[in-house]
Each structure stands twice: as C-alpha cells, then as structure tokens.
Write a structure and sequence with these properties.
The chain is an alpha+beta fold. The longest helix is centred in the middle third of the chain and has 39 residues. GO terms for molecular function: DNA binding; DNA-binding transcription factor activity.
C-alpha cells in the first residue's frame, strides 16, 4: 500500500499512539509543528515528518523532559547535546539505584512477614543450631554520633550489595564484638552486616557469621540497648554455656514510621556447652 503524503492530526496521532491533544501541545511549545494548517484551521502533517516524531518518542521513552528534547532537536551545539545525554544517563542511573533499593527493602519486608508466621515467642530465650553465613560488613565510624554512625554503616552495606546484581539478600543487623556489652567502648570493632548468598568473588568487606550453637531471643529494641542482653547473659551463665564469638543483632523490621516504637530484633549469641 502506497504511503500517504498528508495526514490529519487524528491520523498522525493514531499512527504514534498518542492523543490529538499531545500534538496540539507540542505545536504550542514549538517542539513539533504541523507541516501546514488548512483554510479551515486544521493541522496537517507530512510523511517526511515521521522520522522527527520517532526521535521525539524515543527520547521521551528514555525519560527526557520536553525541554531537553527541544534542545536536542535544535542540534546547534554538539557538546551541549552530548551533555544532555550524559545528564539523562546519570538520572537513569539514580533511578536504577532507587529501584534496587526498593527491591532490597521489599525483600526485607517479605522476610519480616515470613517471620510473623514463624514459631517464636517474644522475649523467650532459646537455643538452636545455625548455619554458617556470608555477609558484607561495614565497621562503625566512631567519629560520628550514634544514629549517624549506624546509618553510615548501613548505607555502606547497601552500596556493597548493589554492586553485585546476582546476589541474594538474606537480612541485616549489627555485629558486636565479643565482650562489647561489658566494654566502655562497645562500638569499637563493631558494625553493620548484610547477609548475602550467591557471591563467588573475594571481597575485602566480606565476613563469615559463624554457625553452630546459638542462644537467641526475639525482642523489641535497638542497637546499644545492652541492658536488654542482661537476661540472655544470665541464661548463658545459669545453663553452663560459654560465649564463643561475636554477638549478632538481627534487624527483623524497622519501625521508622511508628513514633516511640523500637525495632523488632533477634539476638544471637554463639556459645558452647561447658563440661
């Protein structure tokens, strides 16, 4: 079938799956004008205008604003046009990072809701076996205030995680060195961890969370509330266990949105049975 040379505004809009109002708007802002306007005031478009409209549609699909597309269409300065593309690529990178963050948070929330259906009792101390796990670790910057220190380490772990597209996020929390709760400087050599799976490359920020026997407790609390560990430590002494490694505080769900509400957490202390 022979191509038409002249199209009405309705025909041209339908060809690109846009509305007549979109073409009218493009005309008014000077982005894409009709080839001519007939005696009755109707906008008409020519076959030769199709490539330009295709270019506009592609740039719009790439997320460019209409004002930036207008600058590209002018084609008066190669450097400025390339700069616009660089800016758009940077914006897309930021959007990708934001989506990856949302995916990570969504996975974390899924784990929380899975835990709601698990068989555990709040504040009940129990003993169970745990598998060895791999995690990214970001140590605390002791020059910062407590909240900023924890937030900075958390963001570092997010950054490390997002550098690897195929790994599986399994949960996060705070690792305190053995004896930290009795120390005047509990945050020294401690930090935030992100448990991950499916990573094969060696990485300087990777640590191993030990497996074996653990004394555990689910509770509401935040990192640094070491008084919440007192009953666990007493349980360990009373039942003739010995702490063998670092204390792990798993963050099950963060309650940023509930004023005065602490995080749902799970404490994990590695132990061995004394003879």
């Amino acid at each position: 079938m022979e191509e038409k040379e002249i199209y009405t505004i309705t025909e041209f809009a339908e060809m690109f799956r846009i509305t007549r109002q979109t073409l009218i708007h493009y005309d008014k802002i000077g982005l894409f004008k009709p080839a001519k306007i007939n005696d009755n005031g109707y906008r008409l478009y020519e076959h030769s205008q199709k490539p330009k409209m295709i270019e506009i549609m592609q740039l719009k699909d790439a997320g460019m604003s209409l004002s930036d597309i207008m600058e590209v269409m002018k084609k008066n300065n190669a450097d400025s046009i390339l700069a616009l593309f660089d800016t758009q690529i940077a914006k897309l990178d930021d959007q990708i990072l934001e989506l990856q963050m949302k995916k990570l948070i969504t996975h974390h929330r899924k784990m929380y809701y899975q835990s709601l259906f698990g068989k555990y009792e709040l504040n009940k101390i129990f003993v169970s076996e745990e598998q060895e796990r791999t995690a990214f670790f970001a140590p605390f910057d002791l020059s910062l205030e407590e909240d900023a220190m924890i937030d900075a380490a958390y963001r570092k772990c997010v950054e490390l995680t997002l550098q690897h597209t195929n790994i599986q996020f399994e949960g996060c929390g705070v690792l305190f060195r053995k004896g930290a709760c009795h120390s005047a400087d509990p945050y020294r050599d401690s930090g935030v961890f992100f448990i991950i799976k499916n990573i094969s490359a060696d990485h300087s920020n990777l640590i191993t969370l030990s497996g074996g026997m653990k004394v555990k407790k689910y509770f509401y609390g935040n990192p640094g509330q070491f008084e919440l560990l007192c009953d666990v430590m007493q349980y360990i002494d009373d039942h003739h266990y010995e702490v063998t490694g670092n204390i792990v505080l798993h963050n099950i769900v963060e309650n940023y949105y509930i004023a005065g509400k602490n995080d749902l957490s799970m404490l994990e202390v590695p132990v061995r049975k004394l003879p």
